Amino acid sequence: MKNEIDKIYDPQKIEDKIYQNWLEKKYFHANADKDKKSYTIMMPPPNITGQLHMGHAFDNTLQDILIRFKRMSGYDTLWLPGTDHASIATEAKIVEALAKEGISKDDLGREKFLERAWEWKETYGNKITSQIKKMGSSCDWDRLRFTLDERCSKAVREVFVRLYEKGLIYRGERMVNWCSHCLTSISDAEVEHEEQPTHLWHVKYPLEDNSGELIIATTRPETMLGDTAVAVNPNDERYKNLIGKNLLLPLTDRKVPIIADSYVDTQFGTGAVKITPAHDPNDFEIGLRHNLEIIDVITEDGYLNDKALQFKGMSLIEGRKAVVNELEKQGFLVKTEDYSHNVGTCYRCGTTIEPKISMQWFVKMEPLAKPAIKAVKENDIKFIPEHFDKTYFHWMENIKDWCISRQLWWGHRIPAFYCEDCGKTIVQREDPTECPHCKSKNLKQDEDTLDTWFSSALWPFSTLGWPENTEDFQKYFPTDVLVTGYDIIFFWVARMIFSSLEQTEKIPFHTVFIHGIVRDSQGRKMSKSLGNGIDPLELIEKYGADALRFSLVIGNAPGNDIRYSEDKVLSARNFANKVYNAARFIQMNLDDEKLRPLPKNLQTEDKWLLHGINELAKQVGYNLEHYELGTAVQKIYDFLWTVFCDWYIELSKARINSEDKQVKEDVLSVLVFGLTELLKLLHPVMPFITESLFLSLPHSEESIMIAEYPKFNEDFVFEKEFNDFEKVIDALKAIRSLRTSMNIPNKKNLSLYIKSKDFNIFADASAFFKNLVGVDKIYEGELSENASIITTPDAKLSLDPDEFVDYAAEVKRLEKEKEKYEKEIQFLESKLSNENFVNKAPKQLVEKHQNDLQKTKKQLETLENSLTLSRKKLR
Fold first, then answer.
1. Which residues contact 150 (CB under 8 A, 6 or more apart)?
2. Are 635 and 561 in contact (CB under 8 A)?
3. So what's the pLDDT on residue 840?
4. pLDDT tens, residue by residue, 808-837
5. I want to staple 788 with a disulfide (CB 3.0 to 4.6 A). Which of 191, 397, 688, 799 is the partner?
């Protein structure tokens, strides 16, 4: 045989070899074929710091299923892979590595640091791409992109300049989210909120005129050293007469005014709120409305500065304790309450976010958000499942200006230059050599880099050569579907939509296919802290990539989280073995490699199989087109396991063993054709084993990857034969089930009576009844006395128990059962005759016992009748 398969399926032996062959044959490569319709997916670029985790495995499997399905369906497919430079995460890794050498980032300086960063990227940054290959991902590695490569960097600069020229990018002092660990600002989307326990401290602020005091409730007493006012609601009757007066700020020699602002909630705390414009976004807005001084008391690395007086140099936690102690010591602390509130944390490192006023670069979002909202509302872009558009709308309709500058060195440096002579800002497509305003050559580039998501937002078109009108851009943009998790709808999906519409006037994709996250068997999110993470590479090593892919997808619905269990992977491996053994059985019975067309005279069981495969192809095609991947995989699994392996192969064995060569050739032709079609249907999910088995069968195609995906074919519609044979299968299943439940030995032949208007159908299948369920005689009609009756939707089947029941053993079994029922009745009657129990036990329990007693008595009566009949048979 051309590719004889081993006795045992060993994925480790075949997977790497097959993948290498695919690469060498350029099967993944998109050829920009003008005669074919394109289908494009952009791989969400994993971070170069990353290592393959179960989320990547799930995400990539879904994408690969879609791309393989479309490739086999005749599309010019492009699945473009790439990696993200991940500013914060990568810089943190490099700083950590430098620290082990006793070197700081500042010791090296920017240029040397970036040299180290690129060295680190070359050493470790491509690790995840090699891991993605282990999953069998069929992406176009010839088009591998990196968000910091020359092509993407050119697009980033072009977008920055365009937005700046339109007034949509600006620089200004605003309140930002500051991470004191990463030492950079982050956007609202990068802040994760978590409920944290704390305290509410009630502090006395004396009136300057000694006429009284105000009690202020705060969760952040350490920032009171930066207070510049106390606000009350103008409609709060308690404080109307105090508005305009001054308070003495505790622990300082400063005084602050009492101001009126409708923002203040009269129900929170005492209804009087300390205003610290430098350290709270709402206070900042109030400060702007009332022209308040801004006093910043916190350093960039999270310590109190010299404006914090005697508390200078303390960490925020230390400072909080020291300030509270001092307030208590000086008699300003009134009381302390336990309190719980939402705290923003950095999505990268988990550090509590500090609201901080800083000079940063921003994108004006309102004019960009409107067309992006419209595109989804008008169904130009659809979310699958649809309800995820609510998450999108909520974020987009409440969006604030996007802070895009980061205080980092690794990333796209902001292309803004400052003239140190005339003070003008210069933003243009090429680095300026002189100031266009005053001709000075004394220019300095902005030190900050762009938010990583700024470049990721351009991914669907920057990777294709935009802003140049390249062949790839013309052919593959807009792309077709974005496959991504629901956790980055606002991080990434929304930004791609508004960026694409603004820069190209086209949507980036027509469908957003949302999937859930992979959780552990208890439903918990996988994390380092819980120690419940699973390494996909270990599972691939143990079970093979096909088994992992299959286990992640089967039965899963779009948008739903999945629970991982190794049992699922083992079950998928068992399925692979089942398919493998079926193929090996067929191959062992083939005498040569010749092509075998389907026979002209198909048997009923052949038509039953071919009609089933035809219907399966129709349903699976529909499911895949509608992103119901889990449903499609379940249908393929059920058909292959049950219909093909458990039934058709068994049905075929008599013909395979026939002395008539033509009979054998005919059934082998159907077996080869059937398995080949089923392997094609399965291929997008389990690419390796299907390719291996496909190449072992006789056909004229060089790879299953480029074979045609099965479609519904009118030539294989055999509805009558299919329905007729389904009746036979139902009967065979029923008899098989009876034999199992009654422990009838396989060698014991039975006589079967069939009452059905379709008796001839069953009679014609008598050979199957004999070979598969040991029925050597079939009679029309039914037995009346003592018969074992089985009913199917189309027939009443009668069997004579005298042929298969061991009455001596049956009497013993029934006597044992009778004893059990009698004891149960005795227990229940004892309970119900006890007045104390009946009067004091819950009514529902008493009623349950009464019902159980009646039910058990009926069961005993039925059993005694069976026992009487069995004893008669023994005489």
1. none
2. no
3. 87
4. 887 888 889 899 989 999 999 999 999 898
5. 799
